[in-house]
Predict the structure.
Amino acid sequence: MIEGIVFDMDGVLIDSHPVHRVAWSRFLATFGKSISDEGLGFILAGRRREEILRHFLGDLPESKIAEYGHQKDLFFEENFHDVKLIPGVRDFLVTLEAAGLEAGIATSASSARTWGTLRRLELDRKFAAVVTGDDVDAGKPDPAVYNLAAQRMNLSPGKLLVLEDAPCGVQAAKSAGMRCIGVSTNGRAEMLRQCGAEFVIPNFLDLSVETLLHLASG
C-alpha cells in the first residue's frame, strides 16, 4: 500500500523550465557558447548543476562549480517571477495531507535554490522530507536521491510513489524500487513510459489522491 508521495521539483511541482532555458542560455553566453536544442535537452533532463557545468565547460574544480552555479542562479532569480506552480499542485497537496499520506521532494536542484523556491511559493512546510542534489554524491539516474528520501520519510521504497517529469528521474525511482508516474508538462510522455513510468498525467487539475493511487496500482 502506498503511504507516501515523492515529488521531483522542476517540471513536477513548478513550471520552471522556460526560466531555466533563459538562465542557462545567458550564463553560457558569457563564455561565448550558445545552446542547441540538444543542449537544452541535456539541461532539462533532471541532471545536477555540476553535471551540466562540466558538460559545457569541461572538468571544473569544485570552487568553480560553486562560483559558476551562483552566477547561473542569479540569472534564474532575475526571472523568478515567471516561475509558476504546475496547475493543480497546491490543491493536490492539500488533499494529500487530508488523506494522511506523507509528501517528500527528491530533486537534482541545489539546496539553496530548492529551499528558496519552496519558501517563496509558500510550499516549504508541505513536505516531510526534502532531498536535494547537494545531499547525494551521484545524481539521477542513480537512485541515491530517492533512497535518501525513503530513509528520511521512514518508509520503505515499496510504500512510495514517485512523480517525475524526466526520463533519468523515472529510471532513478524505478532503480530505488519505487512506483513512478510521469508528469508530462514537456511533451515527453512516451519517453517517460519507455523508461518505466506506470502512467503519465499532464498536470494535477481535477486529480484526486484516489485516482492517482489507482493509476499507480494499475
Residues 150 and 157 are 6 Å apart (CA to CA). The chain has two domains: 4-15+84-217, 17-81.
